[in-house]
Amino acid sequence: AQKVTQAQTEISVVEKEDVTLDCVYETRDTTYYLFWYKQPPSGELVFLIRRNSFDEQNEISGRYSWNFQKSTSSFNFTITASQVVDSAVYFCALSGVPPSPGGGADGLTFGKGTHLIIQP
Amino acid sequence: EPEVTQTPSHQVTQMGQEVILRCVPISNHLYFYWYRQILGQKVEFLVSFYNNEISEKSEIFDDQFSVERPDGSNFTLKIRSTKLEDSAMYFCASSTRGTAYNSPLHFGNGTRLTVT
Lengths: 120, 116
Fold this sequence. Notes:
The structure holds two protein chains of two kinds. Chain A is mainly β. Chain A has strands spanning about 5, 10-15, 20, 25, 30-40, 45-50, 60, 65-70, 75-80, 90-95, 110, 115-120.
């Protein structure tokens, strides 16, 4: 069974601080995909990044960076120089390669989310 | 940028009533999904749909739930006889290919269902 653990329920930092959101996953699949989604107060889910299990290169996109460590089954997300607009719930999610003939229309397993509060 | 749209944004219904949640996925997407999020909890997978049939479903998706793609654009979730515990935010999502092919899900803004 797949499992995603986001141990940090809530994080509060002051604007401009760097903050790291932790994500630890469990899966028996040798090929899998990891995602981060942002859920702002308005409620929608916004895709941030996907990473496949064969690509352990860290990725940077502006103030966002992701650290994928297969050895520790972690896919952590760092926001540098945080801003008030970064305040949201952030979800880490996992998808394996399904055995079904559906060809990939499998569901994501989400973590419980980390509520990030950026104080001005 | 194309987006997934969901209607209504908020639905209030009485226990035992049928409710249909509607979604219009992104037009060139082939895979469709429903997720739900009970207030304050994590997002949970309900069902995925491809090639006009259910591809995968979770334990939550019991006989009270059904999905349909009645025409070329809409994707609906029906709850036959709502229960109080069905109160949640329901998200529709679509993707060009399945998540196993490195294709991200694009989510709609959600429909908040309140069962009284």
